[in-house]
Here is the input.
Amino acid sequence: MLLIHCPYCDETLPEVEFTYAGQAHVVRAADPSSQTDAEWENFLFIRSNPKGPHYERWRHLHGCGRFFNAVRDTVSDRFLTTYKAGAPRPDLSSLQGDRT
Amino acid sequence: MARFNALSLLKHSLTGHKNWPEQWPEAQPRAEYDVVIVGAGGHGLGAAYYLAKQHGITNVAVIDKGWLGGGNTGRNTTIIRSNYLYDESARLYDHSVDLWEDLSQELNYNVMYSKRGVLMLAHTVHDVQSFKRHIHSNRLNGVDNRWLTAEECKEYCPPLNISRNARYPVVGGALQERAGTARHDAVAWGYARAAAARGVDIIQNCPVTAIRRGPDGRVTGVETAKGFIRAKKVAVSAAGHTSVVMETAGVRLPLESFPLQALVSEPVKPIFPCVVMSNAVHAYISQSDKGELVIGSGTDQYTSYSQRGGLPLIEHTIAAITEIFPIFSRMRMLRKWGGIVDVTPDRSPIIAKTPVPGLYVNCGWGTGGFKATPGSAHVFAWTIARDEPHRINAPFTIERFRTGRLIDEAAAAAVAH
Here is the structure.
């Protein structure tokens, strides 16, 4: 079972309290009507799906109920960090030390 | 290739079956092929077989990072069915069931296709409406599927609990009798043996690290652990790792990779005659010919390449199974495992040409690729050989995510699809 740190509750809790909410930092266009079909496809469907560190959203559903972001290694399933929604995307090189 | 028949079995029985020749040779890569297929699962090996048999293209290599059939081909719960809602899906999956019918004869290899029937249980009014809609749609498409009352379900599958007091009472079910199971390893081995007999090279334990393209954009070959292999055409059939391989050719796909888990019990005497699925409690179960109960459910919630998955999902699955089949509540489970499945946003596969000339992809099978192995391999080989899709896979393009012409089996089937 994954243990996930909620940055709002500041507690590390079991996976069953959380729901996964897909890739993080997917930004909706400010002016949707100006978007081409290709841009819509990219926004709606195309995902990075990396084998390695992945920026993703989680929701502390059975807790504070809030969405937050995380970086998780999709090979080991180990969380490198979690951070509040709206916070800038952390630099991967600063997290490498945690990847054991 | 030594053929299997009654006489050869009898002959080899005299020497204790110790002198069977190897079924396919250990191939080393040549410098160049007409077609390189990445991924030696059922879909990839099958495509190689049909390329050789139906299109006369035998200068083909199938390359895998592990051993053949060691990925999702050997990790699924072996269920075969074609009761999909939409016309496009019905045609694709029923084409596959047609090929399953005589696959053992075709390959001279017993894939143990067993038409034991797949029974999908309805527990709510919504289930009943949705399943009846499926049944009507299936019958219009020539796919067998019929409605059973709860009592008829019990008659078809005696271990079923149809008590009105159950937490999720069974109110009926949809039965596809032509559906069933097959032995998944035998499918990979049968295709490998038949393809190798026609001159296809099967190269195992050789990861493909990159797809190379020339200055005109066309594929030129693949980089592998055993060096560069030139290829006129490259066909990717790499399941959960498709995104990783295709990214090296500069193609980004609408795929996410999730762990899908399954588990088996200790072997017991025959007790379970068919395959039962329940979308509402979310699990499916059948009994293998070895006697193990084979159990599965949905994917884990998060993307991963770990081939493990989490225990909460197993707990959920077992809870669902024991709810419908209380007699299994004291069965001991022997082992569980995970496979990495590539899921598209509409839960339908992509079998298509790509924007890169000479590069083809067969992916996005999500949690349901095994059943489609022969049909998918057949139309994929057609697409590779003719550089245009077969009419059956023509709707399963990459471009549908741009045009919006989705084949939305996710919405159509709620959970299991």
